[in-house]
Amino acid sequence: MTKMGVVDVRQPLGDDGEQRRERRAWHHDAQALHELAPDLPVLPGPLTEYRQMASFDWKQLRVLLEDPETLRVKMNLWRKLEADPMFAHPKATPSVEEQKRHVAVQLKRFVEINLIPREVHSWGYKNKTKFMMAVNAATASWNKNLSVKFGLGVSLFTNALLSLGTERHLPFYEAVWDNKFLFCLGMTEVGHGSNTKSVRTTATYDPKTQEFIIHTPDFEAAKCWAGNLGKTCTHAMLFAQLYTADSCHGLHAFLVPIRDPETLTPYPGVKVGDIGEKAGLNGIDNGFAMFDHFRIPRENLLNRTGDVTPDGEYESCFQNPEQILGAALENLLAGRVAISQESTHDLCAAVTIAVRYAAVRKQGSPRNSKEELSILEYPLHQWRLFPYVAAACSFKVFMDLFTDQYLEIVEQSYKGAEMKDITSMAAEVHAIVSAMKPLITWTCASALQESREACGGHGYLKSSMLGTMRADHDATVTYEGDNNVLSQQASNWVVRHWSLAKQGNSAALLDASPLGTLNFLLNAEDKLKKRFTGTSKTDVMNAHFVMASYEWLLCWLTKALDNQLQKLKSAGVDRFTARAEVQAFYAKPLALAYGENNVLCYFWEKIQTPGIPSEIKCVLERLLVLYGLWGIQRHFVIFYRGGYATGSQLADLVQEACQTVCNQLKPDIVAIVDAIAHPDAVVKSILGRSDGRIYDHLYDAFMSQQGHMERPAWWREVAAKPQSKL
Ligand SMILES: Cc1cc2nc3c(=O)[nH]c(=O)nc-3n(C[C@H](O)[C@H](O)[C@H](O)COP(=O)(O)OP(=O)(O)OC[C@H]3O[C@@H](n4cnc5c(N)ncnc54)[C@H](O)[C@@H]3O)c2cc1C
């Protein structure tokens, strides 16, 4: 497995240089280009003009930024969804109830017509999960409601079932894939979300009947928010505190019947319903449930990490309940990886719409010029959008490479393969995911807002799709681990290794970070002595400056966080309070910077692939530099606070460089979004189509609304009263 450390771009040889020589050369075949990057419309117009300015072939970039196999799965799925009327998008917004019905029947069809072929299940963990993740991301771009419903009810559930359950649970796996059962994942309660340890639903074992009694003590302990629970699920994978006669053994997962699969009538003892209309994702029936001494068979405990014997003896391979919970939750990590992939897709769609619109939309002109300028020509507009384009490309590459590593590690551990550093790998993967899900979903959320604004008033039209995407995407920063809480787990892991860095113990650091994401801590004290000495914008407009600055930033943040924690400890502050004290100004910036650095390192690694055409390499380097400088200017305070720079030089040069790189990217930007764009039928935006005919599509949208030019049926209520003729 390739390590993804910080690459010293000045030193191509040495350990990293060896690795580079082993890299497989990049190549593409003409057939792949034709299939995965269908030709774009060649109508004369502003998009064509910008396309003609491009310095590279967008088709080649497309199959470089994403594994062609994964892209092929997505393109095939999109074609099938487009061809089936059941998956067509309604023209007007349906009622909330209708949205739920529509998505529920779409899910049924999704499984019925084998959009996921049966043979996938025999492919082995890595290939199967990679395929499913590609299907999930593609479905999310088509309709996020459908992917969430499918993810929770089928794919995430069956994945979790395989890792938490044992042979006796396989019939549930089969029933879900046969469309007989639909699941929900019930962790969150009305009174507890992030602090999963404290959920209060109980599962008490009764040895007389060999059953668990599921019980909700009060409304605050009601299960809440679970997708599919509101109206449609037949079962829940429910997390509850397991009690036997003698004690509580902590949180465990149980398979709990909720509704009769044939009538969808809830079982007696389960009070269940929908939580009501939400800000988005209204095709999902998020629900609540309260259990009144509801009995389930002993075998419905998912017993891979802990079990109860028929006579009530608790057995576990772990010492304490927190370890058991940790193992159970670790299995949900795939959900966070999938969310990061979906979010990357949404980010690509957002910038596709905004950049294409910016190329076509003309507003204002210089004095004495009759020709109006495309808003893409304005440096402010470039600065608002281009960093998000850079982020989209970088995240795409990161997710592609990291997903492969992640799945490989899980597969090897399932096989029981001899991996000496499996424990440290698991911890590192957990930290990476805990940093990346917040970074990617937050970046996408702000990109959606910026793109909406960048399209002006028309961006506010529902048919621009930006509002719908923004509302549906919004929840990703909260579910599957709230971003702020999740990022604490990443910073905790990083700071734990500061003592090794301080001792200069490189060997131990390398052991602790088999994927190399802690390499910035190697020789940390020396790195911290570095000072900014640049004198011209070329000193900062390169990958070496960006990556070396990030190393300094990360070392400083890690050391500062450790110092703060030590100071609080010496003052007698307990661990919990100390960790809370340092969150805002040390831990959260560290987690974000760690995530950004991971993106830069993986992207850099990708750029080094031999065989990439030089003109594409040049574009990729510009994107990397822009993404990095964008981050550096957000962290200016730390660079000055930590003494890396004094005076205005750093800020002046970085700002100048940002503007210059944007200007350099301008002729290529339309072709770059062509490379990351989903097909028109998937993006569904009248502003973001590949033909760039925004005004034709706006006209069609205005004219195709039902009754749009008719007098309203309620006209009498508002029209002036007739004047009396007397
Ligand atoms: C659309 C949607 C779908 C969902 N689907 C499911 C599902 O299928 N199954 C399920 O079980 N749940 C589901 N959830 C619930 C989701 O997992 C929780 O909302 C999430 O875990 C956060 O918990 P909470 O809402 O209780 O927020 P809280 O934990 O109460 O957090 C509220 C705020 O406090 C902050 N905060 C909390 N703890 C700390 C701390 N220690 N330090 C600093 N700040 C802190 C958080 O950052 C957050 O901003 C869904 C939620 C949504 C919105």
Automatic annotation (TrEMBL):
Gene Ontology cellular-component terms listed: peroxisome
Cofactor needs: FAD
Statement: the UniProt record of this protein carries the keyword Lipid metabolism: yes
InterPro entries: ACOX_C_alpha1, Acyl-CoA_Oxase/DH_mid-dom, Acyl-CoA_Oxase/DH_mid-dom_sf, Acyl-CoA_oxidase, Acyl-CoA_oxidase_C, AcylCo_DH-like_C, AcylCoA_DH/oxidase_NM_dom_sf
Top-rank lineage group of the source organism: Eukaryota
Region (Disordered) residue spans: 1-22
Domain spans labelled Acyl-CoA oxidase C-alpha1: 332-492
Record's keyword terms, sorted: FAD, Fatty acid metabolism, Flavoprotein, Lipid metabolism, Oxidoreductase, Peroxisome
Compartment(s): Peroxisome
Pfam families listed in its UniProt record: ACOX, ACOX_C_alpha1, Acyl-CoA_dh_M
GO biological process: fatty acid beta-oxidation using acyl-CoA oxidase; lipid homeostasis
Active site per the UniProt annotation: E480 (proton acceptor)
GO MF assignments: FAD binding; fatty acid binding; pristanoyl-CoA oxidase activity
Record-linked Gene3D superfamilies: Butyryl-CoA Dehydrogenase, subunit A, domain 2, Butyryl-CoA Dehydrogenase, subunit A, domain 3
Binding site for FAD: T188, G227
All copies of domain Acyl-CoA oxidase/dehydrogenase middle, residue ranges: 184-292
Chief location bin: other
Acyl-CoA oxidase C-terminal domain segment(s): 545-719
Xref: PANTHER family: ACYL-COENZYME A OXIDASE, ELECTRON TRANSPORT OXIDOREDUCTASE
Protein family (similarity comment): Belongs to the acyl-CoA oxidase family.
Name under which the protein is recorded: Acyl-coenzyme A oxidase
Organism: Thrips palmi
Gene (UniProt): LOC117644304
